[in-house]
Amino acid sequence: MYEPASPGWLLVALCAATGAYCLVRMRSPVEEQRRTAGAEALMGFGMAAMAVPAAVVAPPRWAWLAYVTVFGAAALRGLWAARTSAHQLHHLMGAVAMVYMAAVMTAAPAHHEHGHAGAGAGVPALTGVLLLYFAGYVLRSGARLLPVTVGGGGPGGAEPGEWGARTTVRWGDRPELSEACRLSMGIAMLAMLVTL
User: Fold this and answer.
1) CA 78, CA 93: separation in Å to the nearest integer?
2) Which end of the chain, N or C, is less surrounded by CB atoms within 10 Å?
3) Is 152 within the bounds of a domain?
4) 158: exposed, middle or buried (Cβ count in 10 Å: 0-12, 13-18, 19+)
């Protein structure tokens, strides 16, 4: 027997853990990695705070307005950065989704619980577009995590003489962990949009 708030707490834990790993990635010597990790850490911790079950803590209206302000600024930054990096478009979409969810919760009557503000009204067009985008992003990110063999004799396509040589990669610079974090945040965003 589980409490109704249990999935919400799992979502909080997932997003907080992802945000914490993104903070580790901010120590990377690669500038682009640090910049991307900072945006993803903000998204992870923001999603964790937004996912706290309303039965436990019902945020006041000003908290939702603060989300709109913070993620509105992140969306503007993402829009500016998207000129030079295609990955920044995803950060822009994430920030827009956060602004949208916070705006919906700001406008929701106080007697509606988190996740039930739009019950019975159908799926608004913007929610549908965001759901489609994040579903596609999750599928793409998941596919990028699948192992690919490109020939050769060793694991992952390495030549037999190469697999004995080990290279040390810092935790913050591991591409598969970064991709797994992006995948988990995409899944979390889908879960949050579905309950909107």
Assistant:
1) 9
2) N
3) no
4) middle
Instruction: Judge whether 120 lies within some domain.
Output: yes
Query: Which one-letter DSSP state was computed for residue 180?
Result: H
∠ Cα 75 79 83 (to 5°): 160
CA distance 62 to 4: 26
Domain count within the chain: 1
Q: Which tens digit of pLDDT belongs to each residue from 138-189?
A: 999 888 888 766 554 444 444 444 444 445 656 556 677 888 888 999 999 9
DSSP 3: -
Q: What is the pLDDT of residue 158?
A: 44
Which domain range does residue 51 map to? 6-147+169-194
Give the N- to C-terminal CA distance of the chain in Å, as an integer. 25
Q: How do residues 29-58 score in pLDDT, each as one tens digit? A: 877 788 888 889 999 999 999 998 877 788
Residue type, 129: V
CA dihedral 188, 190, 191, 194 (to 10 degrees): 160
| Paired tokens of 54 | 């309303």
Whether 156 is in a domain gets the answer no
Radius of gyration of the chain (CA): 19
CA distance 125 to 93: 15
* Centroid of chain to Cα 188: 6
* One-letter amino acid of 5: A
Element (H, E) at 162: none
- Dist. CA 175–CA 155, nearest whole Å: 17
